[in-house]
């Protein structure tokens, strides 16, 4: 890490943490650096990310709260704690409703998580969130998750035609190999992920019904 990117570590160790904390002690905007570093580590070092976010939430920063809640949900998801992940994503969504203009990916990840884990009792909430996010799908991975969640939920409530259309759209976005951005051709692509989900969506695209308990 260079002098100006000490808060963007992609690995973590005792030595890296000591260097980070030494720099943080001298920094003026501590909350911002805590949140950014936690977000980078949320998937690869979730326990560390959660510790950093605890420090972030102890500050008075308000601007980055929705992203911090999203990062918290991402860390819990990486740990396999779906209940805590959903709760954190919910906090992010509520924050974005309260303070519009600063958005995280929680409005995509929460419905996607609810749909792919078959949490049918929360489908009305998922549909409400999806309806508000349709015009803010920046990358193909966002569009894939939006349509995938819409397809799974539609199938679960018996709207087979809608499920088929959303499944086809999700698969089209998943198959894209170029972002459309000349200098960032792979940015936001789905890639080879979600193989089991893709197979399920392929069945829905052919007019099949939902899986057991609404899960994929």
Describe this structure in words.
The protein is mainly α and 216 residues long. The protein has two domains: 1-104, Serine Threonine Protein Phosphatase 5, Tetratricopeptide repeat (Alpha Horseshoe), CATH 1.25.40; 106-216, no CATH class. Helices cover 62% and strands 0% of the residues. It is built from ten helices and no strands. It has helices spanning 14-26, 30-41, 46-57, 65-78, 82-98, 106-116, 123-133, 140-156, 160-174, 195-205. The longest helix has 17 residues, at 82-98. The chain starts with 13 loop residues before the first helix and ends in an 11-residue tail after the last helix. The mean pLDDT is 92.
Count of DSSP E strands?
A: 0
Low-pLDDT parts are none
What percent of the residues sit in helical stretches (DSSP H or I)?
A: 55-70%
Rg, alpha carbons: 19 Å
Give the CA-CA distance, first to last residue.
41 Å
Mean pLDDT, to the nearest integer, reads 92
Sketch the major β-sheet.
none
Portion of residues in beta strands equals under 5%
Helix and strand element order: HHHHHHHHHH
Number of helical stretches of at least 4 residues = 10
Structural class estimated from helices and strands: mainly alpha
Q: How many structural domains does the protein architecture include?
A: 2
Spatial shape: elongated
């Amino acid at each position: 890490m260079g002098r100006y990117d000490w808060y963007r570590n992609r690995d973590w160790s005792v030595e890296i943490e000591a260097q980070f904390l030494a720099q943080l002690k001298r920094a003026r905007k501590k909350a911002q650096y805590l949140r950014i570093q936690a977000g980078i580590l949320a998937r690869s070092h979730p326990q560390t990310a959660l510790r950093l976010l605890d420090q972030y939430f102890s500050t008075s920063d308000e601007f980055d709260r929705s992203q911090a809640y999203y990062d918290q949900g991402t860390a819990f998801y990486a740990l396999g704690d779906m209940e805590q992940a959903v709760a954190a994503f919910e906090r992010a969504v509520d924050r974005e409703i309260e303070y519009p203009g600063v958005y995280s990916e929680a409005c995509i990840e929460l419905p996607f998580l609810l749909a792919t884990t078959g949490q049918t009792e929360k489908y009305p909430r998922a549909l409400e969130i999806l309806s508000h996010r349709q015009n803010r799908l920046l990358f193909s991975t966002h569009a894939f998750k939006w349509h995938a969640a819409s397809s799974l939920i539609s199938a679960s409530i018996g709207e087979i035609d809608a499920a088929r259309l959303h499944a086809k759209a999700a698969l089209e976005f998943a198959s894209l190999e170029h972002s459309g951005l000349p200098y960032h051709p792979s940015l936001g692509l789905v890639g080879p992920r979600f193989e089991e989900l893709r197979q399920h969506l392929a069945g829905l695209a052919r007019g099949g019904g939902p899986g057991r308990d609404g899960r994929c």
